[in-house]
Amino acid sequence: MLAEACTASPLRPHACPPVTDGAAAMVIAAGDRVRDAAQKPVWIRGIDHRLDPHHPGVRNLTLSPSTALAAEKAGASGAFDLAELHAPFAPQEVILRQALGLGEDVQINPSGGALAADPMMVTGLARIGEASRRIQSGNASRALAHATQGPCLQQNLVCVLEAE
User: Which residues, including other chains, have CB under 8 Å from residue 9's CB and lie 6 or more apart?
Assistant: First the structure.
């Protein structure tokens, strides 16, 4: 893989998202109605969306302050079993890990993340769905999901999910 030619230096094809079609949907119910919708519900404990300036030339592209602020406002502190990060380019995982304060003990993208499938406009919702699925299956009790849109991690949403 490292012998492959760069797509755009320093990125090689394996560090870029594949062209993918797909769709995603999610059912969200109020707490008093959730038992009608699911036997094992997943609770959204916090969610927030922030953005950085649009023009990449006016920000440090090695940092993601909007992700850090969204995490703070969503209450994304403490331990997580896993994180589903919308990092469509491999180096973005490092930036997001730092902005979110995720340690080495947090499993990142057990689904494969956006590098496995990146259906435009729904990849972020798919990250939330994948984290939720892991909680419902009993493979996690607390997870963080992240979605991004715009150039170079410009817009960032952080969602904290928990089992009962």
Answer: none
